[in-house]
Write a structure and sequence with these properties.
By secondary structure, the chain is mainly α. The chain has one domain: Four Helix Bundle (Hemerythrin (Met), subunit A). Helix content is about 80%, strand content about 0%.
């Protein structure tokens, strides 16, 4: 049994609220120099925003990898979103995984700082697409 339109809208709003919460944490983490955590928040913000997008359009996803693949298939591949948006999402996942799982990898300011504004912009594009 699928979700009703109203149930989807509720979940979409919760997912976008989570995305925005993750973005709001970035400034404090940035000031502390916690670049692994900044990368994690950037990735999680995009993940929740894309999940909201997919749910809004009636898609069902079970994995982080599946979310990236579906974003590429349904939104980047159809030119609703830019190829650069897909690359940003994929790159953030890679950085997050390396930062979380690899004890010798250290995420740097130079690597993460340039991704904050594009992440914020992609979330704004998703919000506009969804109509929130």
């Amino acid at each position: 049994m699928g979700l009703t339109i109203e149930e989807r809208r509720i979940i979409v709003r919760f997912e976008m609220k989570k995305a925005q919460s993750m973005m709001s944490q970035i400034e404090a983490l940035k000031n502390l120099g916690y670049w692994d955590s900044v990368a994690n928040c950037l990735y999680c913000a995009i993940f929740h925003a894309v999940l909201a997008l997919l749910i809004n359009d009636g898609h069902s996803v079970n994995t982080h990898k599946g979310t990236i693949l579906m974003f590429g298939q349904y939104y980047v591949g159809t030119r609703i979103f830019d190829v650069a948006d897909g690359r940003l999402y994929s790159r953030l996942q890679t950085i997050r995984e390396k930062g979380d799982c690899c004890c010798v990898y250290q995420t740097s300011e130079d690597e993460v700082l340039p991704m904050i504004e594009p992440t914020h912009n992609l979330i704004k594009k998703i919000i506009a697409y969804i109509g929130l």
